[in-house]
């Protein structure tokens, strides 16, 4: 007679513990070509590997979350993806949660294939969470949501990004499918309401997060959806601790301010990168 397997600890609970122990700062491990050159490295697979694994050495033992951007590895083909696999594995071995920034979004079997690639522990790219795009309709993410729930993973959904093109879609008004009349609800608000539904009753924190830029200025959106927020644009792109407090208010304790260049430009000095993480986490602890 088979013994039922225990359900994995949900991502939201693991994230809550990690932030309490290590702080909220999330470092993006993004091997821009310009950064490789600043480090004195060639823009090739060898340079990519040296850069990425040095960053892992510096920040993964200290951060609650690291966020590799998949595109910067994919541009080198299969050998670059192999480096990404090492970044994921070595970051998790150092105790960091890995949020893989892939922003995938599709329908049906393709959405399921993305979920299997990034959220199933059997995959060499398996991560603790991914970013996803809901703009084919939030229901298109169902395979990712279901796979995340099954494996104790998380999904961070684009909601209010800080790129200048974002409002064209995110601030658009939804339409009633029966009459075709606008309801007055912004697309971003609808995304957040879906997240609130997914996270309802989760303790201490839901596993389904939103991506909300740290440089959006201000928002009237209801960010109390019982889930984490990834806030890119922190640091070198202009977002500050004061911005986090102002934009997110009481929800600031659930925010992961994310930066890459502010830390990565200090490399290849491992000690300097590590100190930047400690210093930023200390500043964020005042929220």
TrEMBL record:
Pathway: Pyrimidine metabolism; UMP biosynthesis via de novo pathway; UMP from orotate: step 2/2. The active site is at residue 103. InterPro entries: Aldolase_TIM (IPR013785), OMPdecase_type-2 (IPR011995), OMPdeCOase_dom (IPR001754), RibuloseP-bd_barrel (IPR011060). GO terms for molecular function: orotidine-5'-phosphate decarboxylase activity. It catalyses: orotidine 5'-phosphate + H(+) = UMP + CO2. Keywords: Decarboxylase, Lyase, Pyrimidine biosynthesis. The keyword Lyase applies. GO terms for biological process: 'de novo' pyrimidine nucleobase biosynthetic process; 'de novo' UMP biosynthetic process. It is an enzyme of class 4 (lyase). The keyword S-adenosyl-L-methionine does not apply. Residues 24-276 form the Orotidine 5'-phosphate decarboxylase domain. Its EC number is 4.1.1.23. Belongs to the OMP decarboxylase family. Type 2 subfamily. This is Orotidine 5'-phosphate decarboxylase. It comes from Nocardioides marinus. The lineage of its organism: Bacteria, Bacillati, Actinomycetota, Actinomycetes, Propionibacteriales.
